[in-house]
């Protein structure tokens, strides 16, 4: 189910002229980008192309981009990383509620854990959870803050193939339920097509391809895969 048309007319993120360099090498070169409210967008690119740098800039945690462009983003932003970043000395519920105040915080945290399939695991230690369960807890920690924008930096990259499939279904389900804007950084073309309604390819410091995904039709996935691999300079026959 795609976001309502009227919702997509409102930009959640508006980025103009963003530039970022590291030791004289320009990684982002005047990037312009609009992310409509409620849209699920995936960002592809080669290693070192600046995908994570762009995500961190939008999250406001890369101060090196200050003054290099204009950025408008929602007030409530959550970030999910490849590492769940759970504090090993805190149980799962306190991890989910980290930095969250309010009388109903505990209730909200339990509801978020139940939503990601971890109901009843509130008092577990992070070390007692599998990798997939730890990422579920990380998702709960993000969603309990009711973000308008969810930024995900290869959150499933360290998981095995079967767990990744389950996490794909979970993330898509949570997005359909809560409707935040999502920007997913990934190196996996198939993951981008399965999850996102729009796929961007970052090339030479700018958006080289902006592709809207419509999953109707028996050969839709194959067609999109071919276009994205071509944009990435990869042959479909490559292993």
UniProtKB/TrEMBL annotation:
InterPro entries given in the database record: AAA+_ATPase, ABC_transporter-like_ATP-bd, ABC_transporter-like_CS, ABC_transporter_ATP-bind, P-loop_NTPase
Protein keywords: ATP-binding, Cell membrane, Membrane, Nucleotide-binding, Translocase, Transport
Domain ABC transporter: 13-229
Domain of life of the source: Bacteria
Pfam families tied to this protein: ABC_tran
Molecular function GO labels: ATP binding
Translocase among keywords: yes
Keyword Membrane: yes
PANTHER family noted in UniProt: ALIPHATIC SULFONATES IMPORT ATP-BINDING PROTEIN SSUB (PTHR42788:SF17), TAURINE IMPORT ATP-BINDING PROTEIN-RELATED (PTHR42788)
Name recorded for this polypeptide: Sulfonate ABC transporter ATP-binding protein
Species of origin: Streptomyces griseorubens
């Amino acid at each position: 189910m795609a976001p309502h048309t009227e919702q997509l007319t409102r930009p959640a993120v508006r980025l103009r002229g963003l530039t970022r360099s590291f030791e004289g090498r320009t990684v982002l070169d005047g990037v312009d980008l609009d992310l409509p409210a409620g849209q699920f967008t995936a960002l592809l690119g080669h290693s070192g192309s600046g995908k994570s740098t762009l995500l961190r800039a939008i999250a406001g945690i890369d101060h090196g981009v200050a003054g290099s462009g204009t950025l408008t983003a929602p007030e409530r932003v959550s970030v999910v990383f490849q590492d769940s970043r759970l504090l090993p000395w805190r149980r799962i519920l306190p991890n989910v509620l980290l930095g969250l105040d309010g009388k109903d915080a505990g209730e909200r945290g339990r509801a978020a854990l139940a939503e990601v399939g971890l109901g009843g695991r509130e008092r577990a230690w992070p070390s007692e959870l599998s990798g997939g369960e730890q990422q579920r807890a990380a998702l709960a920690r993000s969603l309990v803050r009711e973000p308008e924008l969810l930024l995900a930096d290869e959150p499933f990259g360290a998981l095995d193939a079967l767990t990744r499939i389950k996490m794909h279904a979970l993330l898509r389900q949570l997005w359909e339920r809560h409707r935040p804007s999502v920007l997913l950084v990934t190196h996996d073309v198939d993951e981008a097509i399965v999850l996102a309604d729009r796929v961007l390819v970052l090339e030479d410091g700018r958006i080289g391809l902006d592709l809207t995904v419509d999953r109707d039709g028996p050969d839709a996935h194959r067609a999109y895969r071919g276009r994205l691999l071509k944009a990435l300079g990869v042959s479909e026959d490559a292993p």
